[in-house]
## 1
Amino acid sequence: MPRDIVLGNGELLVNLDRHLFIRDIYYPYVGWANHVGGYRCRVGVWAEGNHFAWLDDGAWEWQIKYETDTLVTDCKALHPGLGLRLRVSHAVLHGRNILVQRFRVENTQSDAREVRLFFHHDLRIDESDIGDTAFYYPPANAMVHYKRDRYFLFAGEVGSGVPEDGAGLTRYACGEKGFRGAEGTWRDAEDGELSGNAIAQGAVDSVIGYAFTVPGQGDAILRTWMAVGETLEEVAGMQSELLDHGFEEALTETAAHDGTYAFRRTDLEALPPGVAELFTRSLLIIRTQVDKRGAILASNDSDIMETARAHYSYLWPRDGALVSYALDRVGLSELTRPFFEFCARVLPKNRAALMHKYGPDGTVGASWHPWIIEGMGMEIPFQEDGTALVVWSFRQHFAKHGDLEFAREIYRKLIKPAAEFMASFRDPATQLPLASWDLWEERRGTHIFTTAAVCAALRAASELADALGDTPSAVSFSTASEEVRAALVTHFWDEDAGYFARMVTLHTDGTLTRDMTCDASAYALFAFGVLPADDPKVAATMGMMGRKLWVKAGAGGLARYERDYYFRVSDDFEKVPGNPWIICTLWLADWYIAIAKTKADLRGALELLEWASLCALRTGVLSEQMHPFTLQPLSVAPLTWSHAQFVTTAGAYLDKLAELNT
């Protein structure tokens, strides 16, 4: 199930599904560790007359969304059978590792009734259910889960109505789960009562309940929170501070802070309303996926582990660079500076090429790329495009922000050594980059995307070297860039096919073969400035892409490449060359924008932006790819890259529109 709601502050990330069940809690890093792991922290409602329903009961009628231009939710649910309507707000507070939730409970019946809300906590602290403890903590009237230096305090207060036994929680229970046949303590709530068991250890869960009377045709408010920290004293202090400062004040301040990410362009009215809204929403969602120490995570949807015991909660240098580019275009250097500092920290000292991917703490991430190539011996597995795009992206960052001291630091630690590596990591006969893994992480070879990225990165490094007074390096990197560009045109263009190959293989006998599979990644030719967008060879390649990769099964959109296997749902490759990907579809829009000479020429790009906005969930979340027949999300959601590409393409559209209007 996609993560319809994502809430975060750069240190604490909380994901909820469409039933408002917490499915992921990441702390102390965005992306690590996940203390829920995709299991469900349920919410249930009991109404007088012994009627009970969890929020995933099919009888609820839902409206799920965020408040405009914020990461505060505005969700509504009606249960005709219970005679209750809920209006729910959530937020992870800015600057404090606290999730707050406000439930307004409306009684649609004429008589006053007692209502009880139950909150279930199914944690696996530090990604394991071994050795957890859950206990009721009387001084804070709270339920606490902990293991070692990870503490989670759950509590709340009734804001109106008549509490049964005070302002806070009135019922609690702790117990075992998933062990010796124990289904979980959440079952205890379904009769409206809880056992009062005050502590459990091992594989545990807990439930807390709040009881209050709701007037006929009236409402009551319940405010709850989860404080996360390293000690019991810390989380209890966080609760005291929240109550002293004011729950509503904290919620308002967080919404106001969100606005600093939302209002980044003043010309959004030139876009259709749905596209403009998704532009702003994308910036806010990207913010939740960025760790304050610099890692830009690809996605934090743990449901991907249903198909493999792995996930997307890593920094891919390629993804991070392209997200950084999108953020820098709208001036969000407070997010991008830490990213470049992160890359400089993790760059290997003995071989200045970034690895496949990294955890948010800077450790090398899991990989499926081997360290030995049959017949060739040991090879360090990496994707050269990741290193290249970080260099290219930093050049765009410097052009936007112009911080000379920061540029000198990053040039010395990252840009120069990486560029020296790329200049040397080439075949002496062809001048093309030597083999590495492609951007799709599936093939080892010399790829069109990687070669274009390396060409652009070397040119970018040359420009940075020149700006910083390193003339010898500027000349060396410029020469290497031109050599790679010329080699790309010579060796990737196939005159018989009439378009650029996606990969070439360099053989030991000096011969070269081309893989002519049509691949959307060839957009890199113009996107990174290697060739003009209206170059006839680029135009022929992009035209072939539009014809061969467009999904003709009804959903539309562009596939990654011919016969794409990843999450494949159809073998009818004539109609479905692969599932439509949001980023690939927007790459085609980028080309339409780049070659546009009149406003009428922009129509195709706008249609693709509108297509992408139709792919969004009700909350604005974009997935990686879509079902080719139903346009339902496939793979992870949200995918940070999808949101960044939407921001980049929409921004390029507005820039070109302004240019054509002058």
Note: The radius of gyration is 27 Å.
## 2
Amino acid sequence: MNKQIYVIGHRNPDTDSIASAIAYAALKRHQGYRNVTAAMAGRPNPQTSYILNRLGVKPPLYLADVRPKVRDVLGRSPVTAGVDQTLREALELFHQHGIRVLPVVNDGREPVGVVSLLKLSEKYLVAGTGRKRGVDTSLQALATALEADFLSGSSSDQVEHLHLFIGAMVEESFTGRIAGYDPATLLIMTGDRPSIQQAAIERGVRLLVVTGGFGVSGPLLRQAAAAGVTILSTPFDTATAAWMCRLSTPLSCFTEPKFERIGVAEPLEHLRLKLLHSGEPAVVVVEEDGTLAGVATKSSLLRQIPYALILVDHNELGQAVSGAEAVEILEVIDHHKLGNPPTNHPITFMVAPVGSTCTVVATLYRERGIEPEPAIAGLLLAGIMTDTVILKSPTTTSRDHEIVAWLEPLAGLEHGAFARDIFASCSGFSAHATLEDALRSDFKHFNAGETLFGVGQVEVVGFDEFFELKDALRETLRKVKEADKLHMAGLMVTDIYSETTLFLAEGKNELAHLMGYPQKEPHLYELKGVMSRKKQMVPHLLKVLGAL
């Protein structure tokens, strides 16, 4: 697979989420996948930052949104034309490249209009009666198209509207036919017909084109110079010259100045809407500086997105990085309940009832006979220690203990001392810049039927700091509840030594009647022996809120 693959955890990532992403990406690279990168859907919390710094590991790539952008389906070699090019040159571009829309750019490569092959044919081939003789061109463009020499007069870049007449009849008939036109707008085309040439010069026409490579006699040239008549001599025959004359029209005369445009960084869905509802066959795509990036058509929407995801430590789109629903998901490595999205193809889906996703990833290393380098082993150990709260959480399994024993010598760390250092350095609320940062650092959304709720968790050493901040935390919970459009928002404050959680809830006041745990005061419950959100808190809330 040539796609870029991002291994990424959930939004508001904890240590297990980031550590498992880094470790699993490293495992995939060990297995020969070169295009695999660890990513994170949110900034590391203070605990994770401490661990990364201590182990000397760089944070993963930050991806706040993986929603496909216009740039992901855009070909970057657009065929363009300049405003001064001729219709003939434009038609050659259409033919050579098999395109339907040609962007017209200025000297700075900024799009100033488009030429559509369909609209060009409508305008050029299905012209009204008044346009049958009309030719918009300049003397210079006309001379270039006809490969002609100036016998009289001089070149000019000024675009003029001329009326084309072919002098292929007797002089009397010809003179009568051009009688109703302003001589200054007449373009007369004839071969070796001195009488027609003389009649045109005497009439004082704007331009006389002599075809077949013929010239004009000296007396007629002097008469033309005196009358201000420009004369061109072209090697083409009259029929070809008449056709080439029309093709000399500058492209600016056919350019549509109003066109659909979109930026390369805009969501692909915006492009889809423009293509489906604008009625235009193509949309001009511009870079951030306004220069042309390319041209997108409906076929662009069929191109594959150049990247895909491997989800770790979650399997629900509600917790995934923004835009994950629009990107191919290749694998899921997790240890939570199932709430996974459907996929179009079979994928690797690995969910194990263990205390940490890092336990699952470390197991994969061991099963494949690959020893992680010390920093990766340390990350895996940290993920297990923090997610199982030093192996005290009820989610802890014998496999977690077994993997910890395997990782310790590889990381060169004793798990208990390492974990105590982590919690001592980063526990509580003061490790965060704001109370909302602390609350959201590990905050997840859930739903119980029609009831939407969110639960955050902060580990502490003693509850003194919590009681000092309790009122402010409740106000912060209220703001988070409103911002996230939840029916209830809760915060688990878990003392890792007493193995007790205080649960602060905002919303669903009737919770008190069914909570089943002591209510210390309004909105605050004491849950002794509860340490796990996944295995204890959320299942209990699903049951209680479902009953409500």
Note: The chain has four domains: 4-67+306-426, 72-123+253-302, 139-249, 435-547.
## 3
Amino acid sequence: MQLSDDPRAAALIEFLGAQGAGELGHGIGRSLLGHLVETYQIVRRWGLPAWLQHAALIHSVYGTDAYQRQTVAVSRRAELVRLAGSRAERIAYLFCATPRGPLLAGTYVWMRSLPPRPDVAGCECGSEAPASREELDAVVLLHMANVAEQARDKNGAPATWLVRLRDMAEPLLDADSIALPRFLATLASFTDEHESLARDAYSSGLRVGDPVARASALGMAAAACPVVPEPCLWQAYLAWCRGDIVAARAWARTARERLDQLGTAWDKRLTFDAWLEIAAALEHHGPSEPASPRDPIGDPRRLHELMVARAGSRRPAPARPEPAGIQRFHRYVESLSDGETASPGRLYPKIKSQPWHEPQDFPLAVYLESNFAAIRDEIVALDPAGFHVESERIRRTGDWDVAFFYERGRRRDELCAACPVTAHGIDTYPAMRTISGLIYVSRMGPGTHIAAHRGPTNLRVRCHLGIDVPSGDCAIRVGGETRSWEEGRCLVFDDFFEHEAWNHTDRLRTILIVDLWHPDLSPTEVRLLEGLHSHTYAQARRLGRYWAANAAAMRASATD
């Protein structure tokens, strides 16, 4: 449990062990120390500040209104201030002293202060300064990590807790000092029914023997809850069993990305690190021994043994951030402040530049082609009133209409709800859903020509799936090469190259367009870029609300 890269955490763990936290029970078969360490790890994986990570490591040592045993007496606060730092200790103290009912109901957002708990032995509430909004935001985040760590069924199987976590985060949407974990944005339209469906389908999928029925149930679990990784790992394992290596690796990559964002195991019969080891093994080399597609295993512990414990020297080391990728990202961020650059943010350094890419290299393109029939039916059935004229300043003749799934970071829930198979692929597989990307249906009328133009950045490549393509002169030129769309097939190209498109036929042409991260970007770079884009988007929304409030106040003053 010692963490060489965080000496303060290591000192705190040693202190907690000396206080007997390793012998105190906390849940079935677990110790309080184990709970505290894993809560710290979750906060760390969520990318939250070091002071909040250290607060997580001691968050319940003074007791809470649900866990009243004090591992460390409140009278010893000065010791923890020296070990954890004053800011971390203050948050841990507030975690103890603040009643969680009104806190988690979000009333602190509009109340001047919450009343302290009256039942805390040795509480210094009379002399303690009232908690600020920023401090209580941090306490809510600790509660969220606390819930995420403890949520499990009696045997460690998945419990229902994600909707609760999403609702708990509602008061933090306008927080200025703390960023929410990124996976919560994916749960915006997630419901209790979705969560129960995911849990039931996952449980059923691990029990059923028939591999086709199992894959169907696990696919339902992965689709119903777009943030949980374990159904994707089992799909990767099933793909290895049937010899579909491309699908296995795509599912494993998706699972690893979900693990990184969720920050904890959903199926806690294995630890987070154990599931991460399985993901790495499935992504790189597969099972250590042949498995029968007619008799796949269904026990997570057995899967870990098969994938990792018997792999011996073949087991890959845990993934680490790539130094070259980090350096490249830093150079990109530095370029954003370059006043001599005409359009900062357009060029990401040292990534390959080529006009066309192979669709099979992109998991989402594979998904779109594999599910073309359902995707085509969804898009063809869309209400024409949901389309509008493409508004970009690109010269064209004829008619060009669009309907957005994602528009510069904003999800269009109504279109996603109308196209569940399409939306599942977009939300599950790597796609650019940030302010630099677009995902939409594009309709080009008969006799239409879109003039040559270039995309805004080299960070992305663009995938076109043919939905309804007329025969005849209907094509796209990228660089010096022209290709035609085909129904059910994807084209992937770098739209930073000059390109133009046309439909010189007498029928409507319809395609699905999805922006993807450039394949040269490492997972670390994508994660950092998504964080940068999310921060920019959130700041823009806050600024918009600020300006709107000021404008309303000025109008009100003018009428007085």
Note: The radius of gyration is 26 Å.
## 4
Amino acid sequence: MKKIIDILTDKMQQAFADAGYDARLGVVTVSDRPDLCEYQCNGALAAAKQYKCAPIVIAKAVLEKLDASVFSSVDIVMPGFINLKLSDGFLTEYLEKMRTTPDFGVEKTGDGKTVVVDYGGANVAKPLHIGHLRAAIIGESLKRLYRFLGYNAIGDVHLGDWGLQMGLIITALKERQPELCYFDPDYTGEYPADPPFTLSDLEEIYPYASGKAKQDDDFAAQAHAATFELQKGRRGYRAIWEHIMRVSVTDLKKNYDDLDVHFEQWLGESDADKYIPDMVEEIKAKGMAVLSDGAWVIPVAEETDKKEIPPCILLKSDGSAIYATTDLATIVQRMRDWNPDKILYVTDKRQSLHFEQVFRAARKCALVRPDTALEHVGFGTMNGEDGKPFKTREGGVMRLAHLIAEIKDVVRGKVIENQIAEDKVESTTAKIALAALKYGDLSNSPAKDYIFDIDRFSAFEGNTGPYILYTIVRIKSILRKYGAYEHLPIQNAANDYARDLMLSIGRFSSCAEFALTSSAPNLICAYVYELAGAANKFYHETKILSEPDSALKEGYIALIALAKRVLETSISLLGFDAPEEM
């Protein structure tokens, strides 16, 4: 189903062509002056220089050729703006098609295509903290958006499970319990099914080991050696690693579930490790890697670069792989397993240079198809009121679970004040708290740093998640009181508030598509806020349930029911949903 903006553009471009002008000039946009018109075309102004003719003359010529069947009015305003308003019939027919077509008729632009979204990046054996928040919720929203538009979207957590932190834990565990069979190189029996540590133990062991390695060179050397032996397949160390994975991943899944973030693949750096040897040899054989101070590197600088782009290091001088090596091997794995049309990485924007190097190296070495898109969505930091990265009151990095608990505490009080049934307090609190957290983050451009403000994000008024939920809940209440409504068709706008709401609903497809092409969930937030505002104005200014004219009432109900569905779909794309009451 075509977007409204495309239908209008097609008609305007045909008119430009029929009037003897370049059809590409007939692009229609949403009006930036809604007090004057709903849509506009400024092509006549752009054409004036090209055709050496006054824009007003061009606009009038185009208007004579325009099929105006979908417009209630078409006005030309000096010096040559073409202002457009939709006819009631066209708008009503379009919304009725949205109501009766799956997914509101949104065009499935990704049909037959696969995208891999790499957006977790959690490190095994470490608890999730607020530094993991933005990757999780921005990535989840983008994945949902791709899936909604028809893509086979695969979310991969890409765990940090193969690096030095493993050697540090193994070394610290050996220091504490040297008698364990895992450390006996001559042991040939089965290793215990239960791990020799708990999750709490792991969370204490890693920071201890990390701190000691910075002060004790011998301990650090042992940790590096343990990491090397693990990666080379030492049996006892692999068994410890498997214990760490089971204990840690179980906890990570619980934390991600609390965020309503779900991955199709729980792969990590370890899964890419087996691809490294063959990949390295292939890159060397192609002559794409060169020796530099004993290290193998892939030159990726280009003549058009305006800043220095250092080579991508393939192997260090001691022959070991690094982060870039693993990322290149992961690309190899993804191309072999899924052959994606696009791989999207959601990480801190400070990694932008790293991904520029990796992407260039992947293309230069033909690790991806020429038409496979590689994109890095870099996000900014979540800051406290002091403008610095958000910290606990004690100055440490806050665990994600603690942050969620804090928001729930704030929201719970408001839910209880609203006299929600006792047995629904916790489930309602959880939904509102998640909306506050996710919307508060996603309403900002991904690349932007922002101030995290629990009180503002959890407010039931203003541009917040709870406000959006409250709008949906109020509509649900009206629909419950009315009764069966699913069969009711959309009718012509009965007042200006109804028309504004209809126009907002009609822009859903354009918004979803633009948010995807821009990799910007904040555009969905902006749309949802606009739509919620239009819905609120409509039911504040219109007597819906008390309307004596039954036909008119049916039209009102059909309209708010469609608004509710579009709002619910939009917030689902953002990664949260609405309670029944609040």
Note: The radius of gyration is 29 Å.
